[in-house]
Design the sequence.
């Protein structure tokens, strides 16, 4: 099974083509079901699960991500894996590390590196480019991270849990959410605006 969570707006679906990639159905029979959903869905947030050729659609509440939300660190439940992998279907390994209203930043087993959050990709900002973890680090294949990587300046580097690099979370529903951490400066408004503009550009009905 493949799953993704997306938002439908009056303008369409942000990152629609990347959601199709995540579901693995650009040319799959399930594409017809996705297109029917996209044509008829009212604005809102939805979880889609592709099981064989059958597309299951479940309305969801809004994303829990918000700017400056509290943060905690836990080892990733998938820290033993290597590289990016499809988003697990719930119930799954990420359920136990989620706490509503708190951004759980997931780390390597030794706690030295940040990998992602429990509900979003994690990016740094070095003043010129967005920084994503190297591709051999275990984390969910994120539509939002992939959009940034394909269209904006990026580089790969480990995100130290003890570093000073500004950090933000980003997912397909909430967009970019900067983290307010006492030992790190905030991500400036301009790169955050770039991501919002990119999501608008990649919104398709």
Sequence:
């Amino acid at each position: 099974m493949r799953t993704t969570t997306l938002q439908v707006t009056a303008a369409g679906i942000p990152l629609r083509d990347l959601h199709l990639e995540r579901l693995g159905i650009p040319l799959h029979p399930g594409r017809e079901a996705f297109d029917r959903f996209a044509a008829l869905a009212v604005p809102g947030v939805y979880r889609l699960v592709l099981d064989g050729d059958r597309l299951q659609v479940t309305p969801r509440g809004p994303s829990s991500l918000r700017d400056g939300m509290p943060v905690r660190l836990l080892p990733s439940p998938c820290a033993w894996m290597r590289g990016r992998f499809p988003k697990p279907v719930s119930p799954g390994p990420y359920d136990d590390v989620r706490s509503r209203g708190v951004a759980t930043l997931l780390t390597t087993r030794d706690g030295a590196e940040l990998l992602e959050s429990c509900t979003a990709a994690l990016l740094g900002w070095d003043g010129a480019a967005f920084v994503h973890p190297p591709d051999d680090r275990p984390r969910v294949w994120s539509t939002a991270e992939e959009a940034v990587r394909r269209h904006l300046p990026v580089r790969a580097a480990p995100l130290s849990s003890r570093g000073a690099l500004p950090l933000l979370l980003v997912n397909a529903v909430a967009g970019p959410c900067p983290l307010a951490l006492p030992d790190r400066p905030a991500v400036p408004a301009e790169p955050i605006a770039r991501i919002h503009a990119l999501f608008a550009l990649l919104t398709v009905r």
Remarks:
- The chain is about 20% helix and 35% strand.
- The chain has a mean pLDDT of 94.
